[in-house]
Amino acid sequence: MALLFRLRPQTKQLLEYKSIIDANEEKTPEQIIQEKQIEAKVEDLQNKIEEVKIALEIKSLALSKIQLSAELKNDLEKINTGNSVLMDTMKEVLMLNKSVMKLQQECRNLEIRRKPT
Questions:
Q1: What is the rounded distance in angstroms from the CA atom of residue 63 to the CA atom of residue 19?
Q2: Percent with pLDDT over 70 in the chain
Q3: How large is the greatest C-alpha to C-alpha distance in the chain, in angstroms?
């Protein structure tokens, strides 16, 4: 029983220390706001990185398509089959590819103008 009486004040003191430590570990409203702002900025940057990756992939695919069309056109000219319908079709495909790229660029420019900064 005497042991319990000695341990009681020590336990009470330890609980007081624990509550002081817990109070010091709590974050202030300013720290919470700052952390939320940082998290929002990180998320915004991750979204921008993803947009850039997608734009790069689209441009790479468009470039590959144009290169492939140009190579095919060159090969057809080398073969010189005399089939003007096929050549006209290939020229039209190249013209359409260029038009698509031009329209995609205009679309990106319009999206950039619409985005709030």
A1: 64
A2: 85
A3: 113
